[in-house]
Design brief:
mainly alpha
Length: 79
């Protein structure tokens, strides 16, 4: 979970230095894939009896998802 969570930020950072709008969109799509993987790991942790539920982390990941999907949507429309 840590690797996918960190990868979100790394890909967003890379997208800020994209060579083109297509490159920006591509890097943001990778960030959203990593976000979805992080959501998956959080679901597994939630279902596991040995990991505590972290509602704050769940909330932050959902909020970040809304932001990323809006950025992607806007970027794709303005191509």
């Amino acid at each position: 979970m840590l690797k996918s969570g960190i990868s979100i930020g790394a890909n967003i950072h890379e997208a800020q230095n994209a060579e083109s709008k297509s490159d920006f969109i591509h890097k943001m799509k990778i960030a959203t894939k990593e976000l979805e993987e992080t959501k998956y790991w959080l679901i597994l942790c939630d279902k596991s009896k040995s990991y505590p539920k972290n509602a704050e982390l769940d909330s932050k990941v959902k909020e970040l998802g809304l932001i990323l999907y809006k950025i992607l949507s806007t970027s794709i429309k303005s191509r």
